[in-house]
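2024-03-11 09:14:02 DEBUG pipeline.ingest accepted 1 chain
2024-03-11 09:14:02 DEBUG pipeline.ingest length=379
2024-03-11 09:14:03 DEBUG pipeline.predict start
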Amino acid sequence: MRALDGIKVVSIERDIAAPFCTSRLADAGATVLTIDHRNSDLVPSPDASTPEPIGCLAWLNRGKSSIALDFATEIGRQTLERLIATADVFMQNLGPGAMDALGFPLERLCSAYPGLICCNISAFGDTGPYAHRRTSDNLIQAESGLASITGGPEEPAVAGIPIIELATGATAHAAVLEALIARGLTGNGADIQISMFDVIADWLTAPLLNAEAGRSPKRTGLVHPLHAPHGVFRSKDGKNILVSIRSDGEWTRLCLEVLEAPTLPDDPRFRTAADRIRNRRATDQAVSDVFATYSRGSLVRRLTDAKIAFADVNTMADLSAHPHLRRVTAETSDGRVSFPAPAPIVIGESRNYGVAPGWQSSDRSGPQLTAAFTLIARD
């Protein structure tokens, strides 16, 4: 038995945040029914100009079931009402006002179904000056200031993954689980509102407080502004290694056991962390000169033996072959796909990851709708 066995989730989801959340609920045993709304003119459709590989679709939709409804029709809206009425959780991220336009204001749903947990994901919330602004993950990275502290000194950059969508999905997952626990104690559902902007603003607390204190963070790439040496150094065979020295003791070990330079720890330019930061160029040059004389394999052995923190500067191809990469598989209409395993490992519990759904086009009573109601119906 899994933790969420018996929990029913109905989701009208697009993009990444909501599907990421509900996929994790499905992993834990929840029955998740996603509503395909792409035939409706009343709600926005996913961007079809950048189709995702089937593996990405399986990653976000494994273990779910699906059905297509046209919300522009009365039967489509009646079907959605019946599905919500039998659900424990209703998830949606269509944007402010979309559910109201369909006749499903969240206030009414929470009132009509007091045990229902509603989770509404939006970009900037349902109210406020930016509530109806069209946006995306990258744009919120810029709007929130995240891009201003990401990348190298030359210009701002966005993260290489949709970090805000993923952070929002993880936040929604935690909020829904908290609401399910609370409902078990009180019997009451919840109306959860989560905005992507709020999520990343929360995550930006440390740089924000530093900026408000007059210490605005600078873009430094892989260099750490508070430690030296802390950056990328190249081996004799052209491999990049990121080295992180965070204490005077580590610096001494690096000098003695890796660089074989016993005079460096007593050099007044490098004696303390403040000295090394003030003389960062000379510090880095001292490390670079020695690294350039050793192969990557030799440096890895030396750094490991000296208990120095370091990392290879890898590509996605390197991650694919990484010895610590755990994988899971899921079935799709195109066969089995493999992707990174979810991070939590519960000792003594093994999980199978369900089939990713194929969209079922139906807006009439019939076998598909009957199957959907049977799937989501309460025991």
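2024-03-11 09:14:41 DEBUG pipeline.report Residues 39-51, 359-371 have pLDDT under 50 and may be disordered.
2024-03-11 09:14:41 DEBUG pipeline.predict end
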